[in-house]
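Replying to the earlier thread about multi-chain prediction with a worked example.

Input:
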Amino acid sequence: MTASRARRRHRLRVLAFMSPWLIGFALFFAYPLAATVYFSFYRYNLFQLTPIGLTNYRFLFHDPYAWQAIKNTMWLVIVMVPLRVLFGLGLAQLLTRIKRGGNLLRAVFYLPFLIPPVAATVAFVFVVNPGTGPINNLFAKVGIHLPDWFNDPTWTKPGLTLLALWGIGDVMIILLASLLDVPKSLYEAAAIDGANAWQQFRRITLPTISPVLMFSAVTGVIQTLQYFTQAMVAANASQGNADQAGTTTAPGYPDGASLTFPQTLYNEGFQQFNMGYACVLALVLFVVAMFFTLILLRQFHAFGDDD
Amino acid sequence: MSPRPWRLITALAITAAATACTAGNQTTTDSGPKAEAPQTIEVWHGWSAPHEVKAFEDAIAGFHKLHPNITVKLVKGQDDTKILNAIRSGTPPDVVSSFSTNNVGQFCSSGALQNLTPYLEKDKVNLSIFPKAVQDYTQYKGNRCTLPLLADDYALYSNKALMKGNPPPKTISELTALAKKLTVRNPDGTIKVAGFLPSVTYYEHVPEHIATTSFGGQYLNPQGRANFATDPAFTKYLQWEKSLLDWYGYDNVKKFVHSMGQEFEASNPFEKGKVAMGIDGEWRTKFMEEEAPKVQYDTSPVPVNDDRQNTYGGGFVTGTIIGIPRGAKHAQASWEFVKYLTTNTDALVTFANGLGNVPSTIPALASPNLKLPPQFKTFLDVFKNPNSTTIPSTINGGDFVVKFQSFVQDQWEPGKVPDLQKGLQGLDKKVNDSLQLAGG
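Result:
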């Protein structure tokens, strides 16, 4: 009896300590998730609720815009995320080798990340504009004609990828810190054993920083699945016309090339007032993000064996 | 997972749904304090630039004299999302104004904004002071939940020097011939000066400013379904648009359009003398005054297709709207404010002068106090012309316009549509599917 009371008291104490997190979890995760599931079975325009069963789910299978957005988002996940990690790693590796002015270069490479995404995107679209952009004009002077990045459907996603590589500061700084944490003694021992630079990188650096690489990949995938601001701003800025009363712009300019999944969700929820269908899209995004995260975590053996 | 957490989740979800369904209260014309009682009303609007905010304050100066008991608190820079969220949460402002006529269908059908008809009938406001197109875009299926607060309309701007003595065209065939005659090309065939760019990617040359005005296309049939494949006007518009585009060369037009500046920058090609004729809103007169004072230009109604010459003089009309949210706490004072601002000639003229917009009632158009450039007269005439058009309200905003524009820009212009009829049928299906999903 006494033991059981003590156990109960212990449990209550644990719960009391956990309560700030539990309350946060319930309010900001469990409740919104439950509400999203609930509204997904309704036609909901923020004012009227009409039960429509699985109609919203069925519509998803025949919605050409959602499928185009899924394809674009997958393209960005498959191309942009690995490139960001590789580029960030390469840059960080180079910075570890620079003896003089290294600190200044770190700051320089980190700076673009500090620019607010809207400003950075507008500036980037401007500098690579085929008519007025200094970069495209500079290349044109030496006979190299760069693509019409954000007005040509073929080049829009590569253009967005370039923009992402320009703002690589966050990935670079994390990888740089992890590279500097690799014990020097390991490299010295390997050098004595005759290992070359590649062998040292492959056998010492990579295994040591793999948790950080995994972190970069997982956060990169989640960020890319939620990719919204840059794609939307680039589309608006490159179109040249303003979104105002009496005029309308299609999301995903040009030809849906920059239409990402969260943009479709936003468009359905806040432009067309199909909040129920937007909830279905949000659930799909949640499930896909969970799926990718679990796959990556398994891939990097983050579970299990250590303990 | 044991069943208990599911019970909790279900309970939370039901609570969420219940709170969502019951937000706000329907208000009647008699609710809240009487208009004569001392009170403060909160008015949300979208303008944010200092001169715009000042124009609004100047416009309501007369209201303060008329109703000294009502204090008006203006809140600038609001948009439809914030408005909808405030109404949904049950704590709306007393009056809201929106730049988007596209959302009138949603505002009215959902009951987010109150039906103003009882107020209008009670005070015997004569709706004929508003042009027909304006009456159309402020209501949805007979529910008039908004009134117009200034307007925008569209006309043809022509650069006098580049026109080389030619008068502005009145028909599409005249426009086409003149566009070809006035175009100047570089030695490699690219465009140096464009006569008239037909592409929908050229700023205000979007389909709603040409397809309906010039060709008479009706976006929706009487059943409220997409009409693109059925109405021959759209086929005529598209075939004309593509033939002129092909005369320039699609790549040439694309290069020309994409190498220009933004619409609202001083590098706008009409302001820079690179385009002889272009369709634009009345606000461009203000831009011309400030950014290109040396450019001599004329304005005239948008040319119409040759088989519709009797409709010449009309144009596309849209504008800002104003309404009273459901749940507004001072509904009667709010109505006095809305009535004053939307029907009082002095208020509208003061506001129009401050913003360079079209005043939204017919009496205000004739006011001698309107201080606008001479080219503005065309816009005043287009506004009251009975042939002027607007887009219909639907339950899902301007989705059909967005999808049509996307079809023209991304599929039709680059030549990706081998069978136009089939392409338009596909477009109709997409529009109808979305309408159906939204409950329309």
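The longest strand of chain A covers residues 42-44.

Feel free to reuse this layout for your own posts.
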